[in-house]
Write a structure and sequence with these properties.
It is built from three helices and four strands. It is α+β, with helices and mostly antiparallel strands. The chain starts with a strand and ends in a 14-residue tail after the last helix.
Amino acid sequence: MPRAVFVDFPNGNTTGRVGEPALTRSILTSAFDLLSESTSEVLVDLLHTWDETDSWKDRVFRPEPTGNAGEKKMLDDRVERFDTPQFQSADDASAADASHAGEDCLVCIGIDI
């Protein structure tokens, strides 16, 4: 049965801003609570805000001139994507390596195939 939580954040920032672990924890906790508590299809708007105003949407959704004869392109300020895992610290990388040692990771099932 479909169940989802929604946050009105820029693409690539589904669990909040980098460096705000309390917000990330709140979003993930709400999502997991919904999975365990809901018995029907539901979409919950968590009502977190990205900024005090919605002006960030102007930068994301409206093309900006590039200076090349009025040519337009979309501003994309998301974090660069990589084909390999990225970690915030060497300790995080070591913990991830240790969690995968000798058995399948219960979080990554289906990804590691």
